Amino acid sequence: MVETSNRRQTAARRREQNSGSAVRNTAPSEFLVIGRLQKPHGLNGELQMGVMTDFPERIKKGKKVYIGENHQLVTIKNTRHHNVGLLITFNEFSHRDEVEHIRNWYVYVRIDELPKLPRGDYYQHQLYGLQVQTDDGIALGTLTEIIETGANNVYVVTSDDKPDVLLPSTEEVILKIDLKTQTILVHLLPGLLPEDFPQN
Fold first, then answer.
1. Predicted pLDDT at 177
2. CA proximity to 129, closest of 75, 174, 191, 177
3. What is the pTM of this model?
4. Contact at 8 Å (CB) between 25 and 145?
5. pLDDT band at 161 (very low <50, low <70, confident <90, very high)
6. How many whole angstroms separate alpha carbon 11 and alpha carbon 9?
7. What span, in angstroms and rounded, lies between the C-alpha atoms of 87 and 5?
8. What is the 3-state secondary structure (H, E, C) of the chain?
9. Taking a C-beta distance cutoff of 8 angstroms, is the pair 23, 17 a contact?
10. What is the spatial distance between Cα 57 and Cα 5, in angstroms, rounded to a whole number?
11. Phi-psi category of residue 64: left, alpha or beta, with phi > 0 → left and psi -120 to 50 → alpha
């Protein structure tokens, strides 16, 4: 899952959508993606990195991150801006030959190391599994997926015996998110509820 808050979007993530299709973030995990390593730059172990986080200011010298599917722990040696991304080096690699094999690897941080967000903002992983109900008292199901379209996110709400409901993440629709009660209160605009959705 990409490291992002509920209300902020990143240009880097939109660049991942160059095919025009939506990026889908599904089940949460212990780690969140903050970037993707690209081709080596120069001879000293530097790589280009595509940024995939709303908080690029935290990608800095001395920060410990995890790379690859096995989440190898590394320490950032240095970063500098380059075109639309970053150039990054790690203490563990000092030559181009040593970083060729980590090209296209994702860079992660641990969920339990994330800083607190301002009141009213949420990391996406906090929203998965919340029960969604309308201000009219209709239980819609569980938030299981967030589709990022480049504009407003779309919440996918699923239930065992009801059709999926797609809700735009706008203030007009999403009225209240309550992590304590694990619920999301929503207001249904005309056309949001499938015609075959049971009303009782």
1. 95
2. 177
3. 0.67
4. yes
5. confident
6. 7
7. 24
8. CEECECCCCCHHHHHCCCCCCCEEECCCCCEEEEEEEEEEECCCCEEEEEECECCHHHCCCCCEEEECCCCEEEEEEEEEEECCEEEEEECCCCCHHHHHHHCCCEEEEEHHHCCCCCCCCCEHHHCCCCEEEECCCCEEEEEEEEEECCCCCEEEEECCCCCCEEEECCCCCEEEEECCCCEEEECCCCCCCCCCCCCC
9. yes
10. 15
11. beta
* Sign of the dihedral defined by the CA atoms of residues 113, 115, 116, 118, in that order: negative
Rounded Cα distance between 106 and 37, Å, is 6
For tokens 């040696």, the residue is 77
| Contact assessment for residue 62 and residue 50, using Cβ atoms and an 8 Å cutoff | no
Q: What is the pLDDT of residues 91-118, one digit of tens each?
A: 999 999 999 999 999 999 998 888 888 8
Q: Are 9 and 54 in contact (CB under 8 A)?
A: yes
Tally the residues of the chain.
200
123 or 9, which is more confident = 123
Residue 123 in tokens: 């990391």
* pLDDT tens per residue, range 17-37: 333 333 445 444 789 999 999
Query: What does the alpha-carbon distance between residue 193 and residue 53 come to, in Å, rounded to a whole number?
Result: 32
What is the C-alpha to C-alpha distance for residues 17 and 151, in angstroms, rounded to an integer? Answer: 12
